[in-house]
């Protein structure tokens, strides 16, 4: 069977399911001080605009206090499930974070699609600095062309070898061993806001951070998309995270 090989430079992140909002944090935190309460009581609508603004200010203050003083458990009472498409080498970095639930596409049971990652032309290629404090700088046009040419060539030949083994009746779990790390895989990842903040603190480079991080650009591309989805769901929590140095509570 002939397969058309696709080369991509983007990551795909979709929020497929969520139960996550700022009120979840306040609901969990306030049980410490006011005891048993129902979710309906905690989310009661305040009709008076002035009273509603005062309540919103108190909510922002509480979340900021929890973030600043690193009272982390109230940020765990929520859930987000993301669908991610990225090269396998990104997933191997991702799964070093043992703070989430993962289900990844299996090359044992399905025939893998010929979709391969090739860095975009603006991807920095030159590494300088000592371990743990690398800086990356743009490559020359010749280096960019070399990376793209060699990546495409190796990916094409590797997938052809994979196909030859499958056509000869070799099991998928054996045939896949020739495929390179830049082949795309897909997974669902489920985590709460506290776990996501830990992930973002390490996998994004941000001027507001207290502890600088130097992530590989490809996993940062995934993290940035996840953060945008989270900011939409929990804007007060996300703002407090950045305001307090992007340190997970």
TrEMBL record:
Database matches in SUPFAM superfamilies: Thymidylate synthase-complementing protein Thy1
Record's keyword annotation contains NADP: yes
Family, per entry: Belongs to the thymidylate synthase ThyX family.
Record: active site: 203 (involved in ionization of n3 of dump, leading to its activation)
Residue numbers binding dUMP: 93-96, 104-108, 176, 203
Highest taxon in the source lineage: Bacteria
Physiological role: Catalyzes the reductive methylation of 2'-deoxyuridine-5'-monophosphate (dUMP) to 2'-deoxythymidine-5'-monophosphate (dTMP) while utilizing 5,10-methylenetetrahydrofolate (mTHF) as the methyl donor, and NADPH and FADH(2) as the reductant.
Record text on cofactor binding: Binds 4 FAD per tetramer. Each FAD binding site is formed by three monomers.
Quaternary structure, from the entry: Homotetramer.
Cofactor(s) in the UniProt record: FAD
Binding-site residues, FAD: 73, 96-98, 104, 192-194, 198
Top-tier EC class: transferase
CDD domains: ThyX
Name of the molecule in the record: Flavin-dependent thymidylate synthase
Coiled coil: none
Keywords from the UniProt entry: FAD, Flavoprotein, Methyltransferase, NADP, Nucleotide biosynthesis, Transferase
Pathway assigned in UniProt: Pyrimidine metabolism; dTTP biosynthesis
A GO MF term: thymidylate synthase (FAD) activity
EC number: 2.1.1.148
GO annotation, biological process: dTMP biosynthetic process; dTTP biosynthetic process; methylation
InterPro entries the UniProt entry points to: Thymidylate_synthase_ThyX, Thymidylate_synthase_ThyX_sf
Catalytic reaction annotation: dUMP + (6R)-5,10-methylene-5,6,7,8-tetrahydrofolate + NADPH + H(+) = dTMP + (6S)-5,6,7,8-tetrahydrofolate + NADP(+)
Lineage: Bacteria, Bacillati, Actinomycetota, Actinomycetes, Micrococcales
Keyword Translocase: no
Family matches, as PANTHER family: FLAVIN-DEPENDENT THYMIDYLATE SYNTHASE
